[in-house]
Design goal:
Length: about 170
């Protein structure tokens, strides 16, 4: 609906009546604008009574008041429509943000997978087997040292693994 107030030199009564008529047809905002439209219609009726009583100056003032009420009703409808659009935009932004978060997770997973694949390729190129078993190597202790120190554990030496102990 187009709730236009008309040009600068337009008759305030005609503009007010047009806006009241247009906004009054808007069923979606009827509850929102009911009181304001009632005030506008009351002012239009007062202006008509004043004209009938040959009080033109007060009739023009009442028409101006009616126009202000009608413009307020139109502005309420515009504000309600703007708020509805803002809610939709916020919902769209929230949905888009959730989608971006999911995509970022997928990108991160892809980057991690590429890193693991690159590590496997590098191990394959260097001849390192992919399935490794950690092996401890014990120094052989002579029989004489075992006899005079039974409580000391055998010396062990751990060999560093190529992957730092992290299995693929």
């Amino acid at each position: 609906m187009s709730f236009d107030a008309g040009g600068q030199g337009a008759d305030p009564r005609a503009v007010a009546e047009a806006i009241v008529r247009d906004v009054g047809r808007d069923a979606q905002h009827k509850v929102l604008t009911a009181t304001v439209l009632a005030h506008a219609q009351e002012s239009l009726d007062r202006a008509m009574r004043m004209r009938q009583a040959h009080d033109g100056s007060h009739a023009i003032a009442a028409d101006g008041v009616a126009l202000e009420w009608a413009l307020a009703a139109r502005d309420l409808v515009r504000a309600a429509n703007a708020e509805a659009r803002a809610v939709e935009v916020r919902r769209s932004v929230r949905d888009t943000q959730a989608q971006m978060d999911r995509l970022q997770e997928q990108v991160d997973e892809g980057i991690a997978r590429v890193g693991r694949l690159n590590a496997e390729i590098e191990r394959a190129e260097h001849g390192t087997p992919l399935n490794r078993i950690a092996i401890e190597r014990h120094d052989e202790a002579p029989a004489s040292s075992a006899a005079h120190s039974p409580k000391s554990p055998p010396k062990t030496r751990l060999l560093p693994s190529v992957d730092g102990g992290v299995a693929p």
